[in-house]
Predict the 3D structure of the following.
Amino acid sequence: MDKIVTEDGSITFYNEAAGENYHTKAGARQEAIEKYVKALEIIPGKVIFDVCFGLGYSTAAALDAGPFTVYCFENDAKILKEILDIDSEFKSFHHIKAFIKGYFEGNNVYEKDGVKLIMVFGDARKTILTVPEQADYVFFAPFSPAKVPELWTAQFFKDIYAKMKPSAKLATYSYAKFVRNNLKEAGFQVFNGPILGRRSPSTIAIKN
Ligand SMILES: C[S@@+](CC[C@H](N)C(=O)[O-])C[C@H]1O[C@@H](n2cnc3c(N)ncnc32)[C@H](O)[C@@H]1O
């Protein structure tokens, strides 16, 4: 996979099948901090669903704010392997590396210092239905709606909504109208999130 250095110095990759980078060129690390952790004003000790875990930057940014239980949804072992060779400025990235190392040794769950990370490997549209807990926060980051519209449907948002606690919040980098309409159809209230590296805001969706 082609490695890319983004504008804040953090590493991302180019995914050939999707024809896209895993993060904005404006800053992969900054994107995780601004669009997910700061956007949702997350409170430590809660349950996060990181839907489309990738390099684990959003989860690392969350863990830098304190311990969480994170269900990590991903369907590509190749990107998970890249994590083992990355140096990252997230102070919690050692948790991500240890978790992924353990995952490749056959352990789906990692627990240390109040941090609990659970790998939910496979198509998130199916695996979400099997998760035994409800989320306080959802980080939603598939490749773009233009490339993979099937991951941005009202049906998938409905299934996620059903797995969230009352008043739980979802953040996504997309501001596409059809994404926002599908979120509304699933029952969410939709708001503008922060702006980073493009002129339009990201999206925050709150369960009623
Ligand atoms: C834009 S990247 C996410 C980047 C990630 N949030 C991070 O901080 O590194 C999208 C990710 O979704 C994963 N993905 C694609 N289709 C999926 C599916 N059906 N279920 C779960 N993960 C999927 C890809 O393998 C990729 O790692």
Notes: The mean pLDDT is 96. The longest helix spans residues 28-40. The pocket of S-adenosylmethionine is lined by residues 22, 32, 52-58, 73-76, 79, 123-125, 141-143, 151 (CB under 6 Å).
